[in-house]
């Protein structure tokens, strides 16, 4: 039996999503908790692999059981009680046995938060940026992303992916408060370190160190060394993941609405 879970986490204490040999990861922590509660080894497959320190407002993951879970609300409560406070599971939903949290996802959205003045409360989850950044120019450059498919210039080197092609459908800076901004980007898939490298290069545009045409040329060069510095992880959130309607085909109507929020 296959189940999807919706969860969120603060990434500060973890070496990313994926299991690591000598470091604590979100995936490992979830697997240990599920294995304890279900009393059998329970691997978990996530919709993506966030890097060390990156947060998730929404991560979707799937796991399998030999038999149907008799009491999903009880499992949900027990799982949240066992997990540390920086990981929260919001729902568990029965899906088709061949549904896949990673391969069936149609889009993913990330947000990168920035603030232009010192703030004692939002700094752990936002980047303090120079107050003179030209966000209008950065948005002109961000629009170039929609015209390309190969994002090698923004990919971590020596990864195990077969292609660096992605389809970006949205990329824009938005002012959410007088001193706060957020960069939102949506694509069918993302490369390792891609969003943080894009933001770092856009910041170079905002500082008037490179122009919009040069930003576009950097994408076309397909050279990570040509792009800007990767931004700090603490301000980046995996924000949303979408699936075709047929994926969330629950075994029963009651399972479909189980949620602890």
Explained architecture:
- With 261 residues, the chain is α+β, with helices and mostly antiparallel strands.
- It folds into two domains: 2-103 and 244-256, 2-Layer Sandwich (Alpha-Beta Plaits), CATH 3.30.70.580; 107-239, Pseudouridine synthase I, catalytic domain, C-terminal subdomain (Alpha-Beta Plaits).
- Helices cover 23% and strands 25% of the residues.
- It has helices at 26-38, 72-82, 135-142, 194-206, 212-221, 253-256, and strands spanning 2-9, 45-46, 55-64, 87-95, 107-115, 127-128, 168-177, 180-187, 236-242.
- Strands 1, 2, 3, 4, 5, 6, 7, 8 and 9 form a nine-stranded mixed beta sheet that branches.
- A hairpin with an 8-residue loop joins β2 and β3 (55-64).
- α3 packs across α4 (194-206) and α3 (135-142) packs parallel to α5.
- The two termini are 24 Å apart.
- Residues 250-261 have low confidence and may be disordered.
Properties at a glance:
alpha+beta, 2 domains, nine-stranded mixed β-sheet, 23% helix, globular
Structural class category: alpha+beta
CATH class of the largest domain: Alpha Beta
Beta-strand share of residues: 15-25%
Q: Give the ordered list of helices and strands.
A: EHEEHEEEHEEHHEH
The gist of it:
The protein is an alpha+beta fold.
What is the secondary structure topology, with strand pairs?
Elements lengths: L1 E8 L16 H13 L6 E2 L8 E10 L7 H11 L4 E9 L11 E9 L11 E2 L6 H8 L25 E10 L2 E8 L6 H13 L5 H10 L14 E7 L10 H4 L5
Parallel strand pairs: 3-9, 5-6
Antiparallel strand pairs: 1-3, 1-4, 2-3, 5-8, 5-9, 7-8
